[in-house]
Amino acid sequence: MSTSTGFQQEDFDVFAIDGLDQRMEAIKGIIRPKLEALGQHFAPALSVATGSEMFFHVAKHARRTVNPPVDTWVAWAADKRGYKKHPHFQVGLWGTHLFVWYAVIYEAPAKEEISRALHAHLDDILAIVPDDFHWSPDHTKPDSAPQSTLGKEGVKKLVDRLAEVKKAELLCGITIDRHDPVLADKDALLARLEAAFTVLAKLYNLSLSRA
């Protein structure tokens, strides 16, 4: 993230701008350069951690014609052409917080296999993932729940749902409130993201292992 100084309040204020064109212009000018820098910064480390070359993709929001984006992100996947069909990593912003995810979203064709692998390694996952990490069943909503609240049964339900429901998704990671001072401290933020990715890369590798 050599081109930026972390994230400021103005980055989060972008999502309060009215109008598709106006908000997209702000996303492109203010947030996207920071996401590009993060993409470049973490691609080598994620490649090493997963054993697969990771390519980064910054959200373009190209299909939007009316409603302005409510969040934006950079994603890393082992596919140069795209990330949505694969387990991947994300860092992005809502108006309220920054998120760091391991994500399997509804476009992924291997959701059943991933669900089986995660189910088989459920005890390992609960040991690897800290209790203050969050889980979410839907990347289009800002809400998520900490593992400490979900417990083993709650995580199991999310994992099993991935195979049972066509539009199901699974995300695991951390959220950082927009007012947390770590966001404005580039070095501290990179260290926080690196620590999160260390955990999430292990989850990624488990999800692709033979059940």
From TrEMBL:
So which domain of life are we looking at? Bacteria
Any Pfam family hit: DUF1054
Regarding protein family, the annotation reads: Belongs to the UPF0637 family.
Protein name as annotated? UPF0637 protein EDM59_00635
Q: Which organism is it from?
A: Brevibacillus nitrificans
